[in-house]
Amino acid sequence: MAEQAFLKGIQAYWDALDQPGEPPELGESKIDAFVDLLHVTSSAEHGFSLLDLLDSSYGGIAVGDDSRPWRLHWAIKVGEVEPFVAPGLEGLIFLADTIADPEGRHRVYTLKDGMRGDLEFADLAGALRWMTAQVRHTKGEHDDQELQAIQSEASALLDDEWEKGPTSALYIVEELLDTPLFEAWDAISRGQWPLVESDGSDPAVEREDGWQRRLSLWLTRRFLATRALELPDEIGVSDMDAVHRSLVDHLIDFEQAIHAGDMPKIIEDTAASEDPKLAAMARAWMERHDGWRTAASVPGPDEDDPYVDEPPPFQHTPFTRKLLSALSVSLDRMIEKGDLELDPDRKDALLIELVTAGSDARSVKHMLKKITSALVDSEHVEEIYPSDDKLQDWFKEDLGG
Prior knowledge:
single chain; 401 residues; two-stranded antiparallel sheet; elongated; alpha+beta
């Protein structure tokens, strides 16, 4: 029954576009047949067409170019959906899931100006029925009321259990869009890092349909929380498809830039690219990166160094300055509320102690624990009354989340 509805949908869409004869032989699977249909009818008047994706998104993401949809196209690729658009429906992108749900249906979602749209379909047959009606409406063969009636019957509200986690393609795409990969690249060029909390979940290692996109989401989240790439022992990079291997390669490059201080290859390659805007942004990234590293460098001691027999003064980066400022506000609030007793003359020394403890943490959660432990154990503190958990909650709030 479902197969017949799908085949009838193909024929109806073909006829609505006034294509001659019968549809050509299409792909064997439903999703392949659907994509082939869009491809062969893309030049027809009023026809839907596959969205042309940017070749490689990582250069644009790394240098912070927001003039083109690098982040969106990256999420679409990693999310393993087929994007398509319709003439006259500006800002609306349809996403057909290449992976079937437990009932064997390929769900179709929409994004409207980057946000989840209201129009969704439980399967490709429903999408084709609406697409056919949309074509006929554009041609003047259906009025608004007829189109709306068909849309009400063909579309569906996708809010079942499948949609509530990483089984859903749209969930993957939306979560990837929410990750601060874009912001992390900008932050590391300034010696900073966005505060990202790890969700503590285990990686997806079962080789079920969709496992690669679920793993890629986990890897991205985990990397941004820990600044380290942690590929599960059960998974080899060679086990992954090209789009997911590219993500792993990108994160490896990023990790080396963070921990070894190397200039990232993606930045160097983009600086040498033929795209003048991206090349200029990459060179600006390199200047920012070199600037903060130079400012943060500490020369080795010599005979005339007044700090030969003691540690040199704390060398600030933009990140540690921001952290120090936030912690200063936190301490002032605790003192004012009577939760902390501290000699005012020792506040600066305490702040440096806390910043030093938190600046090399693996994640936000780890940083909060280290700062809290340093505060509780510090010799600069006379008395402190709140519990460790309460202190961590306060620090988390004051540090922005």
